[in-house]
């Protein structure tokens, strides 16, 4: 009986289709493959390729992404902006920031798409490149208060002497009409960038910067800002947790 069962089992196994020992691996996508798809006419193919650019940090794809800022489809442009903000190589970051800075002026005039305008400002804030300073500060006095603040504070993130020079010059112009308070934003940006608090006394700012310009440690200042941000995020999380528990007790 056991021999019969074993023979039947063997026959069943022999009739089953053979399975490969290992599952076939999908071919590795190269930068060339992604570049080809970025140029594809199909919207879905483009969006998938843009998403892959986060993993594939390649100069050729960065160059193609900068060209795609003129795409007609907003969703494609939005994905491109996000991908450019994620560039890691210094040369690619500069290339990305230069292209995004060129987009600021046409977007700010009439701002047909405010969401895109804010996304470009946020991307420049993330990239923090000296090549974007002039474009970020080149705004009209009628600029919306929130976007004006975002543009000016983005300059504070740029770890360069040119950024401080530009903020001091900007704040000294007395652009403080209407509701924008651009001069106040500029002094707050100076405080964020340097850790100093001279408020709107531009003579003190100029005097202090003249003394420290050649020795200022931008990396140390960035580390301090990062630590302050982490501490603030932790405090916010604690407040939210306390509020959540308080709400739970109220419902009991």
Outline the structure in words.
The chain has 252 residues and is mostly helical. Helix content is 69%, strand content 0%. It has 13 helices and no strands. α7 packs parallel to α9, α9 (145-156) packs parallel to α11 (182-194) and α10 packs antiparallel against α11 (182-194). Residues 5-13 have low confidence and may be disordered.
CATH architecture of the largest domain: Alpha Horseshoe
What fold name stands as the CATH topology of the largest domain? Leucine-rich Repeat Variant
Strand content: under 5%
Number of helices: 13
**Cα shape:** globular
Percent of residues in helical segments? 55-70%
Largest sheet: none
Which structural category do the helix and sheet elements fall into? Answer: mainly alpha
Order of helices and strands: HHHHHHHHHHHHH
Number of extended strands: 0
Features:
13 helices, mainly alpha
Give me the secondary-structure topology:
Blueprint: H1 2-15, H2 31-38, H3 43-52, H4 59-67, H5 74-85, H6 90-108, H7 114-127, H8 133-137, H9 145-156, H10 161-172, H11 182-194, H12 202-212, H13 218-251
């Amino acid at each position: 009986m056991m021999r019969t069962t074993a023979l039947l089992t063997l026959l069943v196994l022999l009739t089953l289709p053979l399975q490969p020992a290992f599952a076939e691996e999908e071919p590795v996508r190269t930068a060339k493959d992604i570049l080809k798809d970025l140029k594809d006419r199909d919207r879905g193919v483009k969006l998938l390729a843009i998403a892959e650019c986060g993993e594939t940090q390649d100069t050729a794809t960065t160059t193609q992404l900068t060209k795609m800022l003129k795409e007609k489809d907003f969703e494609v442009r939005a994905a491109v902006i996000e991908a450019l903000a994620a560039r890691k190589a210094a040369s690619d970051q500069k290339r990305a920031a230069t292209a995004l800075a060129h987009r600021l002026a046409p977007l700010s005039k009439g701002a047909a798409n405010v969401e895109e305008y804010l996304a470009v400002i946020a991307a420049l804030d993330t990239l923090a490149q000296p090549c974007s300073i002039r474009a970020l500060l080149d705004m009209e006095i009628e600029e919306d208060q929130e976007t004006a603040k975002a543009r000016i504070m983005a300059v504070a993130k740029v770890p360069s002497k040119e950024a401080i020079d530009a903020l001091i010059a900007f704040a000294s112009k007395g652009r403080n009409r209407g509701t924008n308070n651009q001069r106040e934003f500029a002094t707050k940006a100076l405080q964020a960038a340097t850790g100093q608090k001279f408020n709107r006394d531009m003579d003190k700012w100029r005097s202090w910067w003249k003394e420290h310009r050649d020795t200022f440690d931008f990396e140390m200042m960035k580390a301090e800002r990062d630590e302050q941000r982490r501490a603030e995020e932790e405090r916010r999380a604690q407040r939210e947790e306390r509020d959540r528990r308080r709400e739970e007790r109220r419902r009991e």
